Input
Amino acid sequence: MPASIEAEKSILGAILLDNLAYNEAAETLKADDFYLDS
Output
């Protein structure tokens, strides 16, 4: 499965800018959300 590095960077950047974004991301995202179907 190819990874979406851009998506991971975007989420990590949002968390670094706003710590509260972590709570929303943790509730919403799964590890599979960062992989693209080939």
Residues 15 and 24 are 10 Å apart (CA to CA). The chain has a mean pLDDT of 86. The helical segments are 5-17, 20-28. The radius of gyration is 11 Å.
